[in-house]
Amino acid sequence: MNKCVFVTGATDGTGLAIARRFAKEGYDVMIGSRSGERAEAAAKKIADEFGVFSKGYETRIFDEDNVKAIFDDIYKSGRRVTTLVLNAANLGIGQESLTVNIDDFMAVYQTNVGWNFMMARAAAKHMIENKGGSIVFITSNSAIRVTKDRCAYCSSKSAILGMSKSFAVDWGKYGIRSNCVLPGMIKTERWRTNLNGTKYSLPNYTPIEDIAEYEDIADAAYYFGSDQSRNTTGAELVVDGGMLAQLTPDITRKLWKDEE
Ligand SMILES: NC(=O)c1ccc[n+]([C@@H]2O[C@H](COP(=O)([O-])OP(=O)(O)OC[C@H]3O[C@@H](n4cnc5c(N)ncnc54)[C@H](OP(=O)(O)O)[C@@H]3O)[C@@H](O)[C@H]2O)c1
Fold first, then answer.
1. Which range is most confident: 14-18, 183-187, 249-253?
2. How many secondary structure helices (H) and strands (E) does the chain include?
């Protein structure tokens, strides 16, 4: 049976780069998105480009019937999900802790913790039958050191570290591994256009004077998701250009080439 990866939030950006990384290695690639249409379009592109089987699924957040239906559909097609990459996230931006509406706060947890949990245990059933598999969480370096006005986001990303270790411990006996990738800044439009009010040029935030390309995160996800990391579980890989290692950024250095 061919290896099969399911990637959430995979119609563009980081998620799409992850899906493409696995497609390049010949995996069957399942694309999850809140939009079934976008998921199907991305899957078709991947199938055409890499000559692999690919299918798009509409993911309804925090809906366990939807999760079950997706994994049943894959099962009925004769495939078993052998790698699950949980990339989609509610970013919970601008949630000031004294004033945030509790429903908005909990929506972040429903996606990043509750729904990820549902997805992981549905995938685990495929993996148990397949005598092993790999769960990869795309969490964040803000699981360890936080950013302002994002209590739900940062603490949900910390919760993911614990959830991943729990799966590693609980499901290791089935050959299931669970690991976390912790990106720092990725070159998304959000950072390029500084929507977060980033004050200084982006490379000034990292000792190596650059932030991550989508492909840097995809490579780390592939490492954890594939047999390359067959003896690694309950682990974390920080991909942040060294942001976490430094106490304060050197804001006086040169500008990012795109901003010069
Ligand atoms: N960008 C960064 O600098 C950065 C830094 C550290 C960590 N990360 C983490 O890396 C991963 C990818 O980051 P990204 O910036 O590429 O993410 P993104 O584009 O903001 O989100 C990834 C996908 O998640 C889905 N999504 C967005 N908002 C959602 C919501 N409210 N509820 C449910 N699903 C939602 C979307 O997919 P659909 O619309 O197709 O459903 C989206 O394409 C995320 O887990 C993020 O937390 C990113």
1. 14-18
2. 8, 7
